[in-house]
Design a protein that fits this description.
The chain is mostly helical and 177 residues long. Helix content is 61%, strand content 6%. It is globular.
Length: 177
C-alpha cells in the first residue's frame, strides 16, 4: 500500500469513528448519515434514500468482513487492511461514491456547486481548508462547479491502494490552505 493510501485509511477511520470512542460501530454510521442528510436539505427523497442505503451497506460490509468475533465494533487494526481492498470493498465504495455525488446535485444538472460540496464534506468530518483544496484540485469551472462524475471518480480513487498524487490526497495534506 502506498504511503498516501495509508494516510487516507487513517483519516477515513477517524471520520467513521463519528462518536470518537476509538472504534467504528453502527452508531457511528447513524451519526454520520444524520449529519450528511442535514446538509442535504435540497436533495430529493430518492437521493436521500440512496445515501442512507449506501451508508447502511458500508457498515454492513465492514461488519460482515471484519467483525469476526461478533462484538459489533471495528478496530483500526481490523480496518486498515480491508478498506482499500478493491475485491472486498470496491462495490460498496462505488455505491457510496455515486450516492454521495448525486446528493451534491439536488437540481440534477450534473454539476456540484462549492457551497454544497463543502457542507456535505464537513458533515462527514473533513477539514474546511482541505475540502477547498480538494474542490480546487478537481478543476472547477468558471462558475465554481465540478461534475457529479468527477466527484464520484475522485471518491473511488481515494480508496485505491495504488493511487498517489490524486485530488483526494488534498484531504490528508498537512497545512493545506
Amino acid at each position: 500500500m502506498r504511503t498516501e493510501a495509508a494516510k487516507r485509511v487513517e483519516l477515513v477511520f477517524s471520520l467513521f469513528d463519528a462518536n470518537g470512542n476509538g472504534v467504528i460501530d453502527s452508531n457511528d454510521f447513524d451519526l454520520m448519515t444524520g449529519r450528511v442528510l442535514e446538509a442535504a436539505v435540497a436533495s430529493d427523497d430518492g437521493a436521500k434514500a440512496a445515501i442512507r442505503a449506501a451508508f447502511r451497506r458500508y457498515w454492513t460490509t465492514l461488519a460482515t468482513e471484519l467483525d469476526a468475533n461478533g462484538d459489533g465494533v471495528i478496530t483500526v487494526e481490523e480496518f486498515r487492511p480491508f478498506v482499500l481492498d478493491p475485491k472486498r470493498f470496491g462495490p460498496t465504495i462505488a455505491e457510496f461514491a455515486e450516492a454521495l455525488a448525486a446528493l451534491g446535485d439536488p437540481d440534477k444538472d450534473g454539476l456540484i456547486e462549492r457551497p454544497l460540496f463543502e457542507s456535505l464534506m464537513m458533515a462527514i468530518g473533513f477539514e474546511k481548508a482541505n475540502i477547498h483544496a480538494l474542490f480546487d484540485a478537481f478543476g472547477p469551472d468558471a462558475k465554481d462547479r465540478i461534475t457529479v462524475a468527477t466527484w464520484a471518480a475522485g471518491i473511488k480513487d481515494y480508496y485505491a491502494p495504488d493511487m498517489a498524487g490524486i485530488p483526494g490526497d488534498q484531504l490528508v495534506a498537512v497545512g493545506t490552505v
